[in-house]
């Protein structure tokens, strides 16, 4: 069958993109059910009103923790108590209507929506960070949570990033060994305490620049815990790539 399509010069990638554009132009808005149009900027099937509401994160921010500041330089917190990760990319603020889209993706198994959100993320990222990373990993999820939800949402995002940057994806090198309670409502100190010994790795990351992918960074405690484990195993640089950053006033 593959040889048959090759003889016809069948471009599967182009066919997929054409189907994606057609679906985006015929399906209703994923938020309000109004007639939607696929915007070239994100390929998200949203109506014009909901698209205009997307919380793009465009203000100056600390390059390490991605919290806003006036100068766009390292913030005082990162200068005094630097997290284990070195840089954060976040194209959105965690606010309406992105929070609704993420909720549908994570808790209602709308994997196709996750792919579209990943495309929106990739559209805002540079082709490759400098220095170039050697490997991509997803924020580890405990096996109990994976069984409960049916998939690791961060891994779905990481797969899209790996295809874009064409660097290896390691899905088993770092794992979550403790099934900690949900961190919603916890402050930074409480989250940090609950995540002690929550992650583990059995392999060497010597000299590697690692990208960790997740959906939302709230306090950065989980990202810090994973990055700390990787650096203890030899990683020289850790870059966080997330869809959205929670800001204090939101």
Secondary structure elements and pairings:
Blueprint: H1 2-7, H2 12-26, E1 37-38, E2 45-46, H3 48-52, H4 76-80, E3 87-89, E4 92-93, H5 98-107, H6 111-124, E5 135-138, H7 143-149, H8 153-165, E6 174-176, H9 188-194, E7 199-201, E8 209-217, H10 221-232, E9 237-245
Parallel strand pairs: 3-9, 4-9, 5-8, 8-9
Antiparallel strand pairs: 1-2, 6-7
Helix pairs in contact: 5-6, 6-8
Major beta-sheet overview? 5 strands, parallel
Task: Return Rg in Å.
Answer: 19 Å
Number of strands: 9
How many DSSP H or I helices? 10
Q: What structural class results from the helix and strand content?
A: alpha/beta
Quick one: overall form?
globular
Distance between the termini: 52 Å
Report the mean per-residue pLDDT as an integer: 83
CATH class value of the largest domain: Alpha Beta
- Poorly predicted runs: 4-10
Q: Please trace the helix and strand order, writing H or E for each element.
A: HHEEHHEEHHEHHEHEEHE
From the 3D structure, determine the CATH topology of the largest domain.
Answer: Rossmann fold
**Helix amount, in percent?**
25-40%
DSSP strand (E) fraction?
Answer: 5-15%
**Reported CATH architecture of the largest domain:** 3-Layer(aba) Sandwich
Describe this protein's structure.
This protein has 250 residues and is α/β, with parallel strands linked by helices. The chain folds into 2 domains: 1-53, no CATH class; 54-245, 3-Layer(aba) Sandwich (Rossmann fold), CATH 3.40.50. Helices cover 38% and strands 15% of the residues. It contains 10 helices and 9 strands. The chain has helices spanning 2-7, 12-26, 48-52, 76-80, 98-107, 111-124, 143-149, 153-165, 188-194, 221-232, and strands at 37-38, 45-46, 87-89, 92-93, 135-138, 174-176, 199-201, 209-217, 237-245. Strands 3, 4, 5, 8 and 9 form a 5-stranded parallel beta sheet that branches. Strand 1 and strand 2 form a beta hairpin. The longest helix has 15 residues, at 12-26. The model is unreliable at 4-10 (pLDDT under 50).
């Amino acid at each position: 069958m593959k040889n048959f399509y090759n003889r016809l010069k069948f471009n599967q990638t182009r066919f997929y993109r054409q189907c994606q554009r057609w679906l985006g132009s015929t399906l209703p808005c994923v938020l309000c059910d109004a007639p939607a149009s696929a915007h070239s900027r994100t390929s998200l099937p949203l109506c014009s009103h909901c698209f205009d509401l997307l919380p793009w994160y465009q203000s100056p921010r600390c390059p390490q923790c991605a919290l806003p500041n006036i100068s766009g330089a390292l913030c005082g917190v990162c200068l005094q108590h630097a997290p284990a990760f070195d840089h954060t990319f976040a194209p959105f603020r965690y606010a309406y209507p992105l929070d609704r889209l993420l909720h549908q993706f994570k808790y209602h198994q709308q994997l196709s929506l996750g792919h579209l959100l990943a495309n929106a993320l990739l559209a805002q990222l540079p082709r490759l960070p400098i220095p170039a990373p050697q490997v991509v990993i997803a924020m580890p999820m405990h096996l109990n949570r994976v069984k409960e939800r049916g998939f690791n949402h961060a891994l779905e995002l990481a797969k899209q990033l790996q295809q874009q940057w064409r660097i290896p994806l390691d899905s088993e090198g770092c794992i979550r060994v403790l099934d900690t309670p949900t961190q919603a409502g916890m402050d930074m100190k409480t989250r940090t305490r609950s995540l002690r010994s929550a992650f583990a790795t059995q392999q060497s990351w010597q000299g590697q620049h690692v990208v960790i992918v997740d959906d939302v960074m709230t306090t950065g405690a989980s990202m810090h815990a994973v990055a700390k484990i990787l650096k203890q195993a030899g990683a020289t640089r850790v870059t966080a790539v997330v869809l959205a950053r929670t800001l204090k006033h939101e």
